[in-house]
Structure to design on (259 residues):
C-alpha cells in the first residue's frame, strides 16, 4: 500500500541526506500506517523511539502545518486505498470464482482441453504466440512445456514470423498455440491463415468463444471472463490462461508417458 504518495516520494528523494531520527519516524509510519493514524504525537514518538519535536519538524518539512494535518491526510488515504482495493478484489474474485467453479467443469471446456492436449501430444514442436500481455503468457507457456514435456518456443513478433519456409515434415509436426484474451486481435487472426497454409495445426486460447480467432482455430479453448479495460488497455486477469496452460502441460505429459 502506498501512503501519502507525495510525502513518501519526497522522502525517498531525500533519503541520502536524512537524519537517523527522520528515518526512524518514516520507517515506523510506513510499516504501521493504521496504528500511526490513531496515535497521539506522544504515542508515535515513543513507538518510533524519537521526540514529539522531531515528528513536528518532519511534518512541517514536508508541507504539513502540523501533526494533526498529517494524521488527517494519513487516515484519508488509508480509507481511499482500502475502498479501491475492496472493490477491485471483490470483482476480480467473483470472476475468477466463476471460472474455477463453472467454466472449468463445463462439458464444453473439458472437451476442448482434452482435444487440445491430444493435438499437442501428437506433435513434436509447440510454438506459442501472443501480443501485449498475452505475449508474456506465451513466454510462460514455453517455460512450462519446455521444462520436461516437449520442445517449445515463442514467436516474439508474430508480424515477422511466417512459417512458409517450414518443410512439410516440420510443419505437419508443429502445433501453434495462439493467445488473445479478446480474440479480436487482427494481427493474430491474420497469422492463422499463414499457419494453416504452412500445414501447422492451430490452438487458440481466448475469453470469447464467438470471436474471429476462436472460429479460425482447429481447437479453441474458451473461458468466460469479463473484459476489464482501462481506457484502451486490456487489464483482464491472466490467471485463467496460466491455469489452462499448466493443466494442459500435465495432460500432455501424461498422454506422452502412456504412448
Amino acid at each position: 500500500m502506498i501512503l501519502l504518495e507525495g510525502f513518501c516520494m519526497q522522502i525517498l528523494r531525500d533519503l541520502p541526506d536524512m537524519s537517523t531520527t527522520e528515518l526512524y519516524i518514516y520507517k515506523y509510519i510506513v510499516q504501521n500506517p493504521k496504528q500511526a493514524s490513531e496515535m497521539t504525537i506522544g504515542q508515535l514518538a515513543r513507538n518510533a523511539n524519537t521526540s514529539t519535536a522531531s515528528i513536528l519538524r518532519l511534518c512541517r518539512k514536508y508541507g504539513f502545518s502540523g501533526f494533526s494535518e498529517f494524521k488527517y491526510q494519513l487516515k484519508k488515504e488509508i480509507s481511499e486505498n482500502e475502498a479501491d482495493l475492496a472493490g477491485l478484489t471483490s470483482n476480480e474474485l467473483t470472476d475468477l470464482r466463476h471460472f474455477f467453479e463453472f467454466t472449468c467443469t463445463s462439458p464444453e471446456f473439458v472437451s476442448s482441453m482434452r482435444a487440445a492436449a491430444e493435438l499437442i501430444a501428437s506433435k513434436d514442436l509447440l510454438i506459442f504466440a501472443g501480443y501485449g500481455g498475452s505475449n508474456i503468457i506465451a513466454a510462460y507457456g514455453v517455460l512450462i512445456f519446455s521444462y520436461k514435456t516437449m520442445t517449445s518456443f515463442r514467436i516474439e513478433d508474430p508480424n515477422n514470423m511466417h512459417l512458409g519456409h517450414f518443410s512439410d515434415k516440420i510443419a505437419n509436426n508443429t502445433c501453434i498455440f495462439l493467445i488473445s484474451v479478446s480474440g479480436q486481435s487482427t494481427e493474430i487472426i491474420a497469422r492463422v491463415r499463414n499457419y494453416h497454409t504452412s500445414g501447422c495445426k492451430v490452438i487458440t486460447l481466448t475469453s470469447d468463444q464467438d470471436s474471429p480467432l476462436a472460429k479460425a482455430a482447429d481447437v479453441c479453448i474458451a473461458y468466460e471472463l469479463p473484459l476489464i479495460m482501462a481506457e484502451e488497455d486490456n487489464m483482464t486477469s491472466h490467471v485463467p490462461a496460466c491455469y489452462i496452460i499448466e493443466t494442459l502441460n500435465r495432460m500432455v505429459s501424461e498422454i506422452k508417458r502412456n504412448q
